[in-house]
Design goal:
Elements lengths: L2 E5 L3 H13 L3 E5 L2 H7 L6 E4 L3 H4 L8 E6 L9 H10 L3 E5 L3 H8 L11 E7 L6 H14 L4 E5 L21 H4 L8 H4 L10 E3 L11 H14 L2 E5 L2 H5 L12 E7 L2 H16 L4 E6 L7 H8 L3 E5 L3 H9 L5 H15 L1
Parallel strand pairs: 1-2, 1-3, 3-4, 4-5, 6-9, 6-10, 7-8, 7-9, 10-11, 11-12
GO cellular component, one term: cytosol
Keywords: ATP-binding, Nucleotide-binding
GO biological process, one term: negative regulation of cell division
Length: about 350
């Protein structure tokens, strides 16, 4: 039998985890001091870290093969939010509330982790220029997907922007945002990250946070995108134009995704779209054009001819959409219907 490390001084926790491990043919090595934990931290052993010793691990580097366990002393005893944030910082696969989470821990102790089957589909929404309406469309599509019964992750690609949470009225919602995730790397489990994210309107959200922050590098993007595709049916990324054109900074190799470029009916926007589309072709990204009607003197057909590419859809101009965005409310009416139709067409 191989050994698992349990770091805890709680006798109830120790007896319980030992029982689960023995049932699966595992031995548990119990450690009770910060020094012992620090010595074993760099190893490849699976460490079960008791909530009572989490403070001893703060400051240690992120590691794989780690789960944090919290003992439930009553039906109303829930995992504290701060424990989820610490778990993300340490790289934990899961925060397990025992005894409710016995099945997960027993399965993990016997090295039988079940991954979600089919990968989720990913859609990137970007704008030909600033103010094109790409963020509003990304939110609208994410909401349409959720209303269609899909599990959705919405990612804010504009790390230094105002934050997509504002468009969803979720700026005060508790949850991890990009500043807490920029150093993420490797495998991130659904059980660890999803409960730590804000989920306005039942859409899991990774948003900017309106504070000075480093930009996530490729390993963080790879980790978050892989998490999303393994955890959700749909991943929607609101990607600013400059970031979208710099694919090496965010796109994992062999990434399968679709890019929609929102082009307002304005001369400068069309000129910017022509440059963006050419660059997309040069880096091997297929982009489709969606026209946002802002000027009736220019039609979708005019833009299609100017860009030499078909227009996938025309988004209606609706003054109420801008008002809703300012209030942190969801767009309704014709715009919401257009987003629903677009999602259904894309999904099927």
């Amino acid at each position: 039998m191989t050994s698992t490390v349990l770091a805890s001084t709680d006798p109830i926790m120790i007896d319980h985890v030992r029982t689960l491990a023995l049932a699966g043919g595992k031995l548990v090595e119990v450690i009770e001091s910060a020094n012992e934990l620090a010595k074993l931290w760099p190893t490849d052993q699976f460490i079960v870290l008791g909530a009572d010793m989490v403070d001893e691990a703060v400051g240690l580097p992120k590691r794989h093969n780690l789960a944090i366990v919290h003992w439930q002393y009553g039906a109303l005893d829930v995992v504290p939010p701060q424990l989820w944030h610490t778990a993300l910082q340490l790289g934990a696969e899961h925060v397990v509330a025992l005894p409710e989470g016995d099945a997960w821990l027993a399965e993990r102790l016997t090295e039988s982790i079940v991954e979600r089957g089919a990968l989720g589909r990913m859609l990137i929404v970007s704008g030909a220029c600033g103010g094109s309406g790409a963020s509003t469309l990304a939110v609208g599509l994410a909401i349409a997907a959720e209303l269609a019964g899909k599990n959705v992750l919405l990612i804010d690609g504009d790390i230094h922007g105002g934050g997509l949470d504002l468009l969803l009225g979720a700026e005060a919602s508790v949850g991890a945002r990009w500043p807490e995730l920029i150093h993420t790397s490797g495998r991130v489990s659904t059980e660890t990250l999803l409960p730590a994210l804000p989920s306005p309107h039942r859409v899991a959200l990774i948003s900017a946070a309106r504070k000075v922050s480093e930009s996530p590098m490729l390993p963080a993007w790879e980790s978050i995108i892989n998490f999303g595709r393994h955890s959700c049916d749909v991943v929607v990324i609101d990607m600013p134009r400059e970031q979208m054109l710099n694919k090496d900074m965010w796109a994992p190799s062999e990434l399968e995704c679709e890019l929609w470029l929102v082009v307002p009916t304005r001369i400068r926007a069309v000129a910017a779209a022509a440059v963006a589309l050419e660059h997309c072709r040069n880096i091997g990204v297929h982009a489709e054009v969606l026209v946002r009607q802002t000027n009736r003197s220019m039609s979708a057909g005019d833009i299609s001819r100017a860009l030499g590419t078909p227009v996938r859809a025309v988004l209606p101009e609706d003054a109420s959409v801008s008002v809703a965005a300012e209030l942190g409310e969801l767009a309704g009416g014709g715009y919401a219907k257009a987003c629903s139709s677009l999602f259904q067409e894309w999904w099927t």
